[in-house]
């Protein structure tokens, strides 16, 4: 996917921005955009709005999404604090993430959603234990903090900043496309410090590219629909080359596919460990 993502509250999140952006890096999300970064924020948004309209987003959606939007200095401050690397060893990090309470809840939910997980695993080839690991680590199965920031404001702030403007300009247009498609209303476009949203923390471009309407209601809802969340997560891995039935520990091809979820080796090893604990 290209960048899976980010801190929940200050340093507690522990997924660095560089790793988070792995879910959208390299996925070719739409044509390059070229609004002039820096300068007047309103002028910048107007240019993005014109580009979004050229890509099929209605003027009504653009006006609603950009109404009253200003740059968020807290997002920029957080972004500049990122170092791109874990500061803990795998053992130290996993000890804080793969804990008995999480394992117990994940096992309970595996039983509750046995039929759904079986269907997703048969269709996409991704083991149910790994899906449960990702779902748990990212948001405690939708019960934890999925972020509290308005995605449009967050991504507009990062796009206006000139360091990675093209990347975040694409993400901003993708966020508008989520609203345009009717997948989420603007009020539900809430996420973390790089604009990740939903129960498994997709960036908007990944939401558009990999999202699956698995409950059949005509919308991809990665905030509220467990079928959509699990199927979309599995689809991301499948599209990026997941090999069904093959191991996914460190050193395997599937472990490299998991890089599209998160580039950090420590995070991927934690995913694999969590999945392993669910099979015990």
TrEMBL record:
UniProt keyword terms in alphabetical order: Signal
Signal peptide positions on this chain: 1-34
Domain Transglycosylase SLT: 41-249
Xref: Pfam families: SLT_2
Listed GO MF terms: peptidoglycan lytic transglycosylase activity
Gene Ontology BP terms: peptidoglycan catabolic process
Keyword presence, Signal: yes
PANTHER family, A to Z: LYTIC MUREIN TRANSGLYCOSYLASE (PTHR30163:SF8), MEMBRANE-BOUND LYTIC MUREIN TRANSGLYCOSYLASE B (PTHR30163)
Protein name: Membrane-bound lytic murein transglycosylase B
Gene label: mltB_1
């Amino acid at each position: 996917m290209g960048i899976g993502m980010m801190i929940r509250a200050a340093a507690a999140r522990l997924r660095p921005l560089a790793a988070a952006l792995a879910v959208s890096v390299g996925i070719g999300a739409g044509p390059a955009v070229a609004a002039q970064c820096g300068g007047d924020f309103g002028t910048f948004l107007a240019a993005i709005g014109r580009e979004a309209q050229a890509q099929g987003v209605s003027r009504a959606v653009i006006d609603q999404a950009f109404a009253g939007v200003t740059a968020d200095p807290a997002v920029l401050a957080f972004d500049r604090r990122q170092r791109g690397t874990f500061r803990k060893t795998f053992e130290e990090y996993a000890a804080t993430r793969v804990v008995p309470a999480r394992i117990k809840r994940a096992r309970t939910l595996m039983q509750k959603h046995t039929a759904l997980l079986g269907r997703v695993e048969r269709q996409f080839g991704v083991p149910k234990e790994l899906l449960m690991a990702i779902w748990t680590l990212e948001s405690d199965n939708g019960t934890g903090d999925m972020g509290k920031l308005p995605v449009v404001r967050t991504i507009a702030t990062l796009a206006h900043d000139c360091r990675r403007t093209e990347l975040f300009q694409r993400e901003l247009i993708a966020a508008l496309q989520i609203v345009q498609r009717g997948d989420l209303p603007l009020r539900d476009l809430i996420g973390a410090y790089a604009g990740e949203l939903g129960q498994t923390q997709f960036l908007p471009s990944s939401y558009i590219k990999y999202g699956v309407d698995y409950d059949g209601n005509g919308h991809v809802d990665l905030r509220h629909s467990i079928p959509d969340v699990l199927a979309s997560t599995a689809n991301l891995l499948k599209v990026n080359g997941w090999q069904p039935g093959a191991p996914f520990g460190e050193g395997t091809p599937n472990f490299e596919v998991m890089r599209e979820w998160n580039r950090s080796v420590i995070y991927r090893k934690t995913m694999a460990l969590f999945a392993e604990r669910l099979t015990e």
